[in-house]
Amino acid sequence: MQDLGVKYSFAGLHKKALVAKDSTAESETLALEDLTDYKAKSAESEILKRSQLHQIVMFNEAHDIAQHRVLTYRMLSGLWKQGYRYFAAESLNSSASSQINKGYVTNNIGYYTRESIYANLVLKAKEIGFEIISYDMHKPSKLNTTDERETNSALTIKEKYLIKTLMQKSSSMLVIPILMKRNG
Predict the structure, then answer these.
(1) Averaged pLDDT in 10-residue chunks for the chain of 184 residues
(2) pLDDT tens digits along 39-58
(3) Could you tell me how many helices (H) and strands (E) the chain has, helices first?
(4) Confidence at residue 25, expressed as pLDDT on a 0 to 100 scale
């Protein structure tokens, strides 16, 4: 059913994507908490405050829920002002950067960028000045497991980007997203 939700998301049918996700969710029993001392905070300002203390900011998102990418989109300018310079996303293939440099997104740069909010997120990051990084599926797969894929993705980020930025005495990144910062 997640695949159905993703297809609805690509079509811009976000309410149907949410319904498809809800219909597959397992029921949970939640304990009620005492919220009398709860104070709501702006997610954007809290993330910006905390991101000043770190070199990497990661945003988690569900592939079938386009609204999850809206927060990342809204955070881009503030993170850029703090020195974050790299935008890395799982969805992008190895040739994505060269295609995005042409100023548009096609279905060929990655699977999830077929969804318009994701495509606009990548274009906005490029427009602001972020270096776009692809890291998923760059290494040959032997076992074809999730662990192998995630390990290979981490190694690609380390080998191609972290070592490079550390050699330049700079390191900051956004990936889906992760954002990385340059030092001094």
Answers:
(1) 74 78 54 67 92 87 85 94 88 83 84 90 94 80 84 82 60 52 54
(2) 888 999 999 999 998 888 88
(3) 8, 5
(4) 55
Tell me the longest C-alpha to C-alpha distance in the chain.
Answer: 53
89 burial (CB, 10 Å; 0-12 / 13-18 / 19+) is buried
Handedness of CA 156, 108, 141, 58 (dihedral sign): positive
Dihedral (C-alpha) 95, 101, 107, 112: value to the nearest 10 degrees?
A: 80
**Tokens describing residue 2:** 């997640």
Helix H or strand E segment including 72: helix 67-81
Helix (H, G, I), strand (E, B) or coil at 109: helix
Q: Pull the structure tokens for residue 87.
A: 């935008």
Strands (E), 144-183: 173-175, 178-181
Q: How many CB atoms lie within 10 A of CB 37?
A: 5
Q: And the tokens for 81?
A: 């002002």
